[in-house]
Amino acid sequence: MAETAVRAAVLIIGSLWWEDDLRSKGDRVRIAWRETYLDNYKETVQRVNVPIGYGRYSGSARRRHYTMVFANAQARAKMGPGVGLVAPCRASYDVDRHISELAIAEGINAGSDWGAVALLANPPRAAALNTVLSKWRQSFARRAGVNPRTPDLEKDFAVTAAGRLDIPWPKLAGTATDLDFDLLLATANKATLVNGAYATPATIAERFATAGEVGAGDPRYFVENVRAGIRTADDAAIWQAMINKKPAWKQQHPDIEALLAAP
Hints:
By secondary structure, the protein is an alpha+beta fold. The protein has helices spanning 29-37, 41-44, 76-79, 95-106, 130-143, 151-156, 201-209, 220-228, 235-245, 248-252, 255-261; strands at 8-12, 46-50, 52-58, 65-70, 82-88, 115-121, 171-172, 183-189. It has one domain (3-196).
């Protein structure tokens, strides 16, 4: 399979889908990436089953809450099933360009120790992608901020030493049908483990209730994920714990309860 023939897409599980800016209000980095490098993404997006959860604590001033991670083979039983979004890459750019631009849109560089771009090959088509995957393995080893590997990374990170995303090939949400692409690109973040465990819904809710620059609470990351159709197995429990702490959020975001009740 020639690289130009690779049918690639991006697997998205968080704010990359709905947030326009990256670092500062008005920088438009993420919406520019979506409009330039995704192919008609609003109409072509597909929901897929993936093992995800609110597993990484982001201590940046504008967040200070938990964000989404993929669950690797060791963590999947604890994390539970979820739903992510897949949008096709524009065929006019090669895989290397898509990897580089995705990293920029996510704020990842060679020194990033919190996450990395990773690739996931459709198993029946992996052999035909050998050139692409080998090239990426060499590049990942040179520039990924998470390397060299340590035992701890195996527990909290869903990326292999070869730069491959350590999850099963996704199926369309609610079906037994495999997603029909050759290759997926994704951003995987390292989880924040406490005594080797992922945060509970109560802890996740507590962080949202004190999020933001002044610590007054900010539910936006959770709310916009739900509205986008990005889901985790713990969403209902997280939301209930959030509105227990911030009752006004239920009135301010009246659609969330109904969305969480929908399949």
